[in-house]
Recover the amino acids of this structure.
């Protein structure tokens, strides 16, 4: 059938494929993009990066030989009149071979499973980080379509920007007053869902001062793409200065102000010198019906997230966002 | 009066977007053109008798495949629109709300209205032929399944021009999908489009399960079943357990929206997380539903084009059954970040990884089927060969995602998008294409010329890698899924731009395929295929192409996995089976009821979408009447006389 000399396509295709591959590998390096997930700046992110590397290597141990093997087999046994490789049309079973390729994946997956389970317990998000310094607590609430950060110890709040002291554990308590979102600062560590009616706990830490990328990772409607924020990790001293500055130069967040924030819409960065007492707990327990406690301690092996389990009556109208 | 009408129309039709006006005009013109052509050539009767009322599994299969290719086009255009929007930072091509509708419909259409019907099309065309049966177990139900799917899909697609599309994501998590956040009718279209076609999917699952259990040729014991049929069987097991979950979940969501229930709203004690668990209890098995038949297709093709018996038959069967079992124990890996705690996450991480073992074994078995074979590079085989590395890499990134603590970094990022497109395109789409090319001559009686097919193959494949490899990278750079736009400062645009180029290359590949088919239809007389154009191995190749309506003039035997191959060997040695006497063949009669009943379902669905109870009741009443009419129709079968069989066989075989 293919008596013609090598057609142009046969030369062009491999060349194009090679060029594309090279371009893909080199391009992001040239373009200055940053692989934030692989460039962690804190202990949690670092452990996760290690785990990604370990699991990639474990998988590569099996897939690289298989890829080579497939190429060799396809090349060697292609149908060519002058192909002298063996041809055994009825060879369809070999217990020895099958035992090998059931066993090898079982071993690899077995190792990976052990590693995974260990890391799963180690990196349980609500597990406090070992540190000499006491953690800073930050209460996070995802709203339509902005992030509200409250600093209960400092008494201040911010929208769409986050300041944390470097080299000190940060205990995030997270909830949502909107559809479920996901709080993600890739360089510090993996994400966790923010859900209404629940308070989740996530410990992260920045080892170095710097500015990091943060965003909402779960789709929550029209402008969820605007839910990104910078994370500024500074020295303790600078952090204290910043708090003082916010205290002095910003307005207070009132309950009315908060209600306005919950309205669907995007928001610029904002700073507040104070916020209503117990606001976070109110958000968490907003939907609590008599006799049905909110999951204020969800998935947490540590101390309670702080929300009072009480049967606090919901005073919010049920369809607040039906407007 | 006129004002009222205007107001109604502006609510009823989607307005204000030039893209949608364009689509409306295109739909209008196409509809008029179809009606005009059918009328001009006096084809209405032909259409009704041969297609709309048919219960012939082969024709139903062809209709499934045509519908699914049209849906592939629609879903593909959605994909290209998204890629255009993301090609550059701060693009203003699609408004965020419109973008959300586009990715919602893209996902829903590709899984439920493209992959599923394509799969059912292959089931229908091939399974009865492979097991030596004359039809499926319930031919009437089979026709009903098709029309339910088709009208469900039409209802869903209607949302594009009437009322507005759903925009809460393809799995429609509450509260986004609740009345509070999606007050329009888009979400109702989603619920009813899927619900109506879902009934059809469940029925198909049952139908083929019974067909395979009860209608195998004499001698075809379970361990002699062709591999594609085995894959269909394992798929049907999953359908049987997974689809009822979907039906119930969507019904509850509809009750929330329509009747003010609170199953999935936090107030009054409901819980959205319940929905997320339920939808993934269906959603994860669903991906195995669509991929297992592709594994079956690959098994058939690898063996045929290597001219060799499939290696490790028992392992292959065992592996598939394990996958269908394990598929029900992995759903929570879709929300490792929900804070279920380390115990739950560890359990689901491990069950998810376990699936890699049987899948890996299958890959080895395919490779060793080729080993010491003779590999012919026809298009079905090329798609199969392309699948292997693609799926190995996609499978590996899947294993990476299953590592729960690492998934905290991958979740909802473009890394995930790249992974599932790699397994779904590399596994499912490549598999179905391979199957389509492989069985094309059996369906239509002519063979496609390979030249355009090879162009299609290469543009698709190169396009695929150019499109999705950058998405892994951009995911590691922190780009999250479903973003409608991003800034210059992110450093993402180069990779996104490359990805968009790849997407368009795949689009070009699709055009090559359309051209290939059009070209084949134009020249079909000169491309006439014999009964066995690939020198293949299973029973479907022992009869003429296309298969006569009764499939087998005499019931074949199925004593060997590669029965037809063995038969050819025997014939080569001069051993012929004894001539069997022809007998009249019992066949089901055509019926218009499946079509009419599905139209009533459509009417009912449309009524529910807009909350017009009178219309919903009217539709449901029509459904009921159709059921009664069917239960009183006694004249549902007929016999094909021996003379006619002789004539048909002579003309089919004579012309080859």
């Amino acid at each position: 059938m293919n008596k013609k000399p090598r057609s142009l396509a046969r030369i062009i295709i491999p060349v194009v494929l090679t060029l594309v591959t090279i371009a893909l590998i080199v391009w992001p390096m040239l373009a200055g993009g940053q692989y934030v997930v692989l460039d962690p700046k804190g202990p949690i992110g670092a452990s996760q990066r290690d785990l990604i590397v370990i699991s990639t290597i474990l998988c590569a141990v099996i897939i690289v030989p298989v890829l080579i093997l497939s190429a060799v087999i396809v090349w060697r046994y292609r149908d060519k009149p002058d192909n002298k490789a063996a041809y055994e049309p009825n060879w369809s079973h070999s217990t020895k071979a099958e035992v090998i390729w059931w066993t090898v994946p079982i071993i690899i997956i077995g190792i990976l499973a052990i590693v995974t389970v260990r890391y799963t317990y180690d990196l349980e998000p609500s597990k406090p980080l070992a540190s000499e310094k006491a953690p800073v607590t930050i209460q996070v609430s995802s709203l339509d379509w902005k992030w509200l950060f409250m600093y209960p110890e400092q008494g201040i709040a911010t929208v769409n920007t986050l300041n944390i002291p470097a080299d000190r554990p940060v205990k995030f308590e997270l909830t949502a007053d909107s559809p479920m979102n996901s709080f993600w600062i890739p360089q510090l560590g993996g994400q966790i869902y923010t859900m209404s009616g629940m308070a989740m706990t996530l410990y992260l830490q920045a080892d170095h001062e710097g500015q990091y990328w943060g965003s909402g990772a779960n789709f929550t409607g029209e402008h969820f793409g605007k839910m990104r924020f910078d994370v500024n990790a500074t020295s303790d001293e600078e952090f204290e200065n910043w708090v003082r500055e916010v205290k002095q130069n910003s307005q207070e967040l009132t309950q009315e102000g908060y209600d306005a924030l919950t309205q669907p819409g995007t928001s610029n960065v904002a700073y507040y010198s104070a916020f209503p007492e117990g606001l976070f707990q109110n958000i968490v327990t907003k939907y609590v019906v008599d006799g049905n406690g909110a999951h204020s301690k969800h998935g947490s092996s540590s101390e309670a997230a702080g929300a009072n389990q009480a049967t606090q009556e919901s005073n919010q109208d049920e369809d607040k966002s039906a407007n | 009066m006129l004002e009222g009408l205007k107001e109604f129309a502006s609510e009823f039709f989607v307005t204000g977007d030039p893209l949608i006006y364009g689509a409306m005009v295109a739909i209008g013109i196409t509809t008029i053109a179809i009606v005009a052509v059918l009328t001009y050539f006096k084809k209405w009767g032909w259409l009704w008798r041969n297609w709309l009322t048919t219960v012939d599994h082969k024709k139903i299969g062809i209709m499934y495949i045509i519908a699914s290719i049209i849906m592939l086009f629609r879903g593909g255009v959605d994909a290209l629109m998204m890629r255009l929007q993301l090609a550059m930072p701060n693009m203003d091509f699609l408004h965020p709300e419109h973008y959300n509708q586009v990715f919602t419909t893209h996902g829903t259409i590709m899984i439920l209205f493209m992959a599923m019907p394509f799969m059912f099309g292959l089931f229908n065309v091939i399974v009865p032929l492979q097991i030596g049966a004359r039809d499926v177990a319930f031919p009437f139900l089979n026709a009903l399944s098709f029309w339910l799917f088709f009208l469900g899909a039409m209802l869903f697609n209607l949302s594009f021009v009437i009322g507005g599309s759903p925009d809460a994501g393809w799995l429609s998590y509450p509260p986004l999908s609740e009345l509070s956040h999606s007050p329009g009718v888009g979400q109702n279209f989603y619920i009813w489009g899927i619900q109506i076609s879902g009934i059809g999917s469940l029925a198909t699952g049952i139908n083929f399960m019974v067909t395979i259990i009860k209608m195998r040729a004499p001698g075809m014991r379970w361990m002699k079943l062709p591999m594609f049929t085995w894959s269909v069987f394992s798929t049907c097991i999953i359908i049987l357990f997974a689809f009822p979950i979907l039906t119930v979940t969507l019904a509850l969501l509809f009750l929330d929206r329509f009747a003010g229930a609170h199953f999935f709203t936090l107030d009054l004690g409901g819980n959205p997380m319940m929905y997320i668990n339920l939808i993934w209890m269906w959603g994860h098995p669903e991906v195995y539903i669509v991929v297992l038949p592709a594994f079956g297709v690959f098994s058939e093709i690898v063996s045929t084009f290597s001219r060799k018996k499939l290696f490790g038959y028992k392992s292959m069967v065992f592996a598939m059954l394990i996958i269908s079992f394990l598929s029900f124990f992995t759903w929570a890996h879709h929300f490792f970040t929900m804070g279920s705690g380390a115990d739950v996450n560890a359990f689901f991480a491990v069950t998810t990884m376990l699936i890699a073992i049987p899948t890996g074994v299958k890959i080895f078995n395919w490779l060793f089927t080729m080993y010491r074979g003779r590999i012919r590079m026809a298009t079905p085989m090329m798609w199969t060969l392309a699948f292997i590395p693609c799926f190995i890499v996609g499978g590996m990134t899947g294993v990476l995602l299953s590592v729960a603590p690492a998934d905290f970094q991958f979740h909802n990022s473009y890394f995930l998008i790249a992974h599932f497109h790699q397994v779904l395109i590399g596994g499912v789409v490549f598999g179905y294409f391979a199957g389509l090319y492989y069985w094309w001559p059996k369906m239509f009686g002519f063979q496609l010329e390979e030249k355009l097919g090879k162009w299609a193959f290469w543009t698709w494949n190169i396009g695929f890698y150019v499109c999705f490899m950058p998405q892994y990278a951009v995911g590691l750079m922190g780009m999250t899924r479903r973003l409608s736009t991003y800034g210059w400062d992110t450093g993402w645009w180069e990779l996104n731009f490359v990805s968009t180029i790849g997407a368009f290359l795949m689009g070009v590949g699709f055009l090559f395929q359309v051209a290939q088919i059009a070209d084949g239809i134009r020249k079909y007389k000169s491309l006439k295929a014999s009964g066995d154009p690939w020198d293949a191995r299973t029973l479907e190749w022992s009869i003429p192409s296309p298969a006569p309506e009764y499939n087998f003039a005499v019931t074949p035997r199925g004593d060997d996995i590669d029965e037809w191959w063995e038969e050819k060997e025997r014939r080569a040695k001069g051993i012929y089976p004894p001539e069997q006497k022809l007998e009249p063949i019992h066949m089901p009669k055509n019926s218009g009821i499946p079509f009419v009943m599905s139209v009533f379902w459509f009417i009912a669905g449309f009524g529910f979408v807009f909350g017009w109870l009178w219309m919903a009741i009217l539709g449901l009443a029509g459904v009921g009447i159709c059921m009664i009419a069917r239960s009183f129709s006694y004249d549902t079968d007929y016999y094909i006389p021996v003379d006619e069989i002789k004539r048909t066989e002579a003309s089919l075989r004579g012309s080859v």
Q: What stands out?
A: Helices of chain A lie at 8-31, 43-76, 95-122, 236-249, 255-262, 279-284. Chain A has six helices and twelve strands.
